[in-house]
Amino acid sequence: MMSRSALETCILGVYCLFAQDPVSGLRAESLRTGLAAMVELLGDVVPRNLLEESVSKVGTAGRSVGVRDMAKYIDRELGGDGTSKLYGLVYAPTSNYFSHANAGTLIRHVRPDDTLSRKPANPWLRRSPVRVADASVGILAVHLARYESVPAEAFSKYAKAHLARVLPPLLSLLGKRMGKSAGWLPLARILLRARRMRTIMRNPDLTDARRESLARDLFRDVSLALDLDDVPNDAFTPVIDHFIQEIVKAYAGEPES
User: Fold this and answer.
1) CA–CA distance, 234 with 253 (Å, rounded to integer)
2) What is the C-alpha R_g of the chain?
3) pLDDT of 77-97, one tens digit each?
4) Does any domain span residue 64?
């Protein structure tokens, strides 16, 4: 939760540096939530229209830009997609698993064998939330430094170093599930096999059909390790086919090294 809050503060801070009039949006949101609280508190004794009139004397109530919209706005200004990716990889999953009461939070109380657990499983690794918080400080510092026209290289290195050591919640969850269902030793064997397969794939004498066959065998074994019996095979087929095509394309004609 604290890591998510740090990332949200970072995105808001960077957005405020680029947006035309961010304070007006924040003020409108503050007045909107304030009005809602006043209606709940005084609605039985003071008509809503009078409360709205009182708030209008201070300013216009309304919704401010959401975190996802802020991320997209920043990327448009910077000409990339880094902030949106960080939102999708970290902010959205942490909201799903830790902030809201929904399927994502409830399923944390279900073990792989479908029995209930009083203690919720942690879908994230312990150090990654700390890395996200540290990276958020570095990212915001980079843009503040550039805004003030002072050197930002040290902050940039700091942010990149922490981002490189963040494992997104979804990957953490899949890794833990594979470790529990298949065991860590079989999982390690699959990883070693994947590394060896890279060398085999570079062999110029290997046909694309053989490359595809090797890739499909690996994905099949990974699927078995995940033990996704409750998910139809067709659900993953398009994604797996895409990855296989990309792998074959990447190694086709590549010289052996």
Assistant:
1) 31
2) 24
3) 999 999 999 999 999 999 888
4) no
